Amino acid sequence: MAAAPAAAGSGAGRGRRAAATVAAWGGWGGRPRPGNILLQLRQGQLTGRGLARAVQFTETFLTERDKQSKWSGIPQLLLKLYATSHLHSDFVECQNILKEISPLLSMEAMAFVTEERKLTQETTYPNTYIFDLFGGVDLLVEILMRPTISIRGQKLKISDEMSKDCLSILYNTCVCTEGVTKRLAEKNDFVIFLFTLMTSKKTFLQTATLIEDILGVKKEMIRLDEVPNLSSLVSNFDQQQLANFCRILAVTISEMDTGNDDKHTLLAKNAQQKKSLSLGPSAAEINQAALLSIPGFVERLCKLATRKVSESTGTASFLQELEEWYTWLDNALVLDALMRVANEESEHNQGASEENSPPHSSTRTQLPQSMKIMHEIMYKLEVLYVLCVLLMGRQRNQVHRMIAEFKLIPGLNNLFDKLIWRKHSASALVLHGHNQNCDCSPDITLKIQFLRLLQSFSDHHENKYLLLNNQELNELSAISLKANIPEVEAVLNTDRSLVCDGKRGLLTRLLQVMKKEPAESSFRFWQARAVESFLRGTTSYADQMFLLKRGLLEHILYCIVDSECKSRDVLQSYFDLLGELMKFNVDAFKRFNKYINTDAKFQVFLKQINSSLVDSNMLVRCVTLSLDRFENQVDMKVAEVLSECRLLAYISQVPTQMSFLFRLINIIHVQTLTQENVSCLNTSLVILMLARRKERLPLYLRLLQRMEHSKKYPGFLLNNFHNLLRFWQQHYLHKDKDSTCLENSSCISFSYWKETVSILLNPDRQSPSALVSYIEEPYMDIDRDFTEE
Predict the structure, then answer these.
(1) Backbone angles phi, psi at 325, to 5 degrees
(2) SS3 breakdown of the chain: % helix, strand, coil, rounded to 5?
(3) What's the whole-number mean pLDDT along residues 364-387?
(4) What does each C-alpha distance from 168 to 80, 144, 147, 279, 345 come to in angstroms?
(5) HSE of 534 in the Cβ direction (CA atoms, 13 Å)?
(6) Which segments of 542-597 are extended strands (E)?
(7) Fewer CB within 10 A of the terminal residue: the chain, N end or C end?
(8) Taking the domains of the chain in order of start, what are their residue ranges?
(9) How far lies 257's CA from each of 131, 220, 222, 265, 420, in Å?
(10) How far apart, in whole angstroms, are the C-alpha atoms of residue 538 and residue 460?
(11) CA-to-CA distance for 99 and 745, rounded, in angstroms?
(12) For the residues of 713-731, what is the DSSP string, one character each?
């Protein structure tokens, strides 16, 4: 019927194809019905057959049709663009046509982004839609990629200005027209080619933003090792470009997200891991390795993350960047907000500025401090995210070593008060459609990203002591000396030239703001997680006392008991932190009893624990382990705590332990196990391991059986527990699983964990410690293949 989509070629060739198309219309009895044209174009675009481009029509036909449909002359302009963009063109006329097309799309895209889009009766179809429908997007891709074509051994060239116009038009079309970004994402050679356009400063911002949008919808992650001369490209970026490039890296080094990681079932994650092992490293892991192989890459990121506002790019270059962003919609709203802040401050300081400024200065070049700060915040957000992802990757130890060497932590410590945790101004920047307290505001996002970085940096790593200053490290040594215990080896091995300077280290600063945080603050969760990560690993009495002396336990108890905290996430983070702070520490239990000094307070505390064991089970585990250790110690101080502490007395009762055990097993199932709730399974195992040590395991199993019968559901709990333990073996005995976390959190050897699970799963019904001995035959259901459910 209609001619196939035209490839870029000579003008004469296009004319013949257009004539053939018109002839085809004649075969249908004249020109097509107006209502069918757009439908035919869309169909051709989807199928690759029939009508798909403006070149398949005559200019006369398009002009006549435009009078009725008000297409703003876009199809005719595209027809001219085809004719002037052939391989032997000098592209001068081509660029002029692009200049005509660009404003027709940019205003529409601006209105679209700012949610002020109004479809008038005169404009039935948006300009961007018409531009795409008549083949504009595909034509611009061809024009941009002309430099990849050689004629007689010479590469074709197009100007930076023309590339910039093409990129702007493509981006505006992506913003307004559904499906365009996905179609571009499918052109892998084009996506890779776009990276080469970032070598020019003139096209960098436009290219980076288009790449970011494309990668955001691309089904398969791009591999950075396929980008030509990646190392040279990145090494030649200035600091401003590198910070913006981190926006792209955020997409390329993070594993493809299919939901909240904590909510993924472990069954699904294990299956994915098995599949990944057979496929080799993921694209994200390959990309991380590619970046880490670039000389000086991490060092430059650390410098960006820690530079002060006064060290950032000068006013002139910043204004130039803002000017470029003004027509580039991704940051248009941010720019508007920045300019509003600038105007407010300019008006406020107008008198002083006029008296003290040089004769030729103007408010345009007198950049307000708040504008500089927000500029730096936007950069640091992306940089900290990239560093955080690298810290959690396969090369974690390499990244840790570099981050320490390049003094990221002391640098962030110096920025803490003036930038990271600065006080909000009355005109603090907020993004369009959000408010100052929204988690999306740059100020708040920077704080959360900073806390996530601290959490990743401290978690199970010796470098966590870099969060302290020299005086605070000496304090840790003094605590160990006073308690007559060996000093922590990691403290002794800490390079004092890399720690924080100033009066307070980063951890102490964090504690100070944590205690001042309002009850409803969204930061509480992240602050607690960051501090808890400092305590994770092998329990350190000195670390605990360092935090106890700064009032952390009292602050946590205030939040749990007195502030009536309702957020489950915050409560979980505070319970986890409290458990790590109190584990095996007699002084902590004394402080707890001093604060929770009435039955009323204790009942409120128990109510919070019992309201959600998924949130509080780590505290239950730590208290249970501490009780077991204290009961085996001969010490007056310990004996005093055992006799006075309400919490220890409560946990020591067998009915209490059985209540916890029953509920911990009952709230989880193999099919619903996640990284978040698997701790319930391990806490139930801790209770049974301690019972086994005391030769009381059969008693506990018998009591569970009785509790089942009392609920009128014989077998339902023990069958479930049997399945959970079978899964536990598959999950934790896999060769890639790290068992040290279980050992460190419990001070019970992993071999004892394995032995206990094996004893419980013993198929011999005569064994008094086997689960099957307590499940009656009619209710037995232990051989279910849970992996297929």
Answers:
(1) -70, -20
(2) 70, 0, 30
(3) 75
(4) 19, 12, 18, 38, 32
(5) 27
(6) none
(7) C
(8) 55-212, 660-788
(9) 33, 12, 14, 14, 28
(10) 8
(11) 65
(12) -TTHHHHHHHHHHHHHHHH
Query: 678, 763, 663: which is closest to 722 by C-alpha?
Result: 763
Helix (H, G, I), strand (E, B) or coil at 391: helix
List beta partners, residue 469: 500
User: What is the enclosing helix (H) or strand (E) of 334?
Assistant: helix 332-348
State the Cα angle at 412 between 410 and 413, rounded to 5°.
60
How many CB atoms are closer than 10 A to CB 752? Answer: 14
Amino acid identity for residue 77 in this structure: L
- Phi and psi at 536, nearest 5°, equal -65, 160
Nearest to 12 by CA among 98, 95, 97, 88: 88
* Tokens, residue 384: 């900290």
Whether the per-residue pLDDT at 719 is higher than 60: the answer is yes
pTM of the model: 0.82
The confidence score (pLDDT) of residue 133 equals: 81
Q: Cα 607–455–488 angle (5° rounding)?
A: 95
648 half-sphere exposure, CB direction, 13 A CA radius? 26
Would you state the CATH architecture of domain 55-212?
A: Alpha Horseshoe (1.25)
Handedness of CA 770, 773, 779, 785 (dihedral sign): positive
- Radius of gyration of the chain, Cα coordinates, nearest whole angstrom: 33
Q: Using CA atoms, how far apart are residues 143 and 424, in angstroms rounded to an integer?
A: 47
HEC string for 267-287: HHHHHHHHHHHHHCCCHHHHH
Q: What are the contacts of 467-471 at 24+ separation with CB within 8 A?
A: 467/409, 467/500, 467/505, 467/506, 467/507, 467/534, 468/499, 468/500, 468/505, 468/506, 468/507, 468/508, 469/499, 469/500, 469/501, 469/502, 469/503, 469/504, 469/505, 470/496, 470/499
- Tokens representing 253? 């080094």
Distance of CA 17 to the CA centre of its chain: 50
DSSP one-letter code for 487: P
Please report which confidence band the pLDDT of residue 354 belongs to, taking 50, 70 and 90 as the band edges. very low
Paired strand residues for 150? 155
Distances (CA, A) of 316 to 237, 323, 366: 18, 10, 9
Report the pLDDT value the prediction gives residue 740, as an integer from 0 to 100: 84
The strand ranges marked E within 81-211 are: 150-151, 154-155
Specify the pLDDT at position 23. 34
- Whether 688 contacts 702, CB under 8 Å: no
pLDDT, tens digit, 9 for 90 and up, residues 437-482: 555 577 888 999 999 999 999 998 999 999 999 999 999 999 999 9
Is residue 562 a contact partner of residue 618, using CB atoms and an 8 Å limit?
no
Whether 563 contacts 556, CB under 8 Å: no
Task: Give 117's DSSP letter.
Answer: -
Tens digit of each residue's pLDDT (9 = 90 or more) over 293-331: 999 999 999 999 999 877 665 555 555 555 554 444 444
Nearest to 590 by CA among 548, 539, 531: 548
Sign of CA dihedral 613, 616, 618, 621: negative
**Predicted local confidence at residue 423, as pLDDT:** 67
Cα-based distances in Å from 194 to 158, 184, 191, 212, 294: 14, 11, 5, 11, 20
Is there a contact between 221 and 252 (Cβ–Cβ < 8 Å)? yes
Number of Cβ within a 10 Å radius of residue 656: 15
State whether the Cα torsion 709-714-715-721 is positive or negative.
negative
**Confidence band of 48 (pLDDT split at 50, 70, 90):** low
- List the structure tokens of 71: 């297409």
Amino acid occupying residue 765:
R
Return d(Cα 7, Cα 142) in angstroms, integer. Answer: 9
Helix axes 750-760, 678-693, angle to 10 degrees: 90
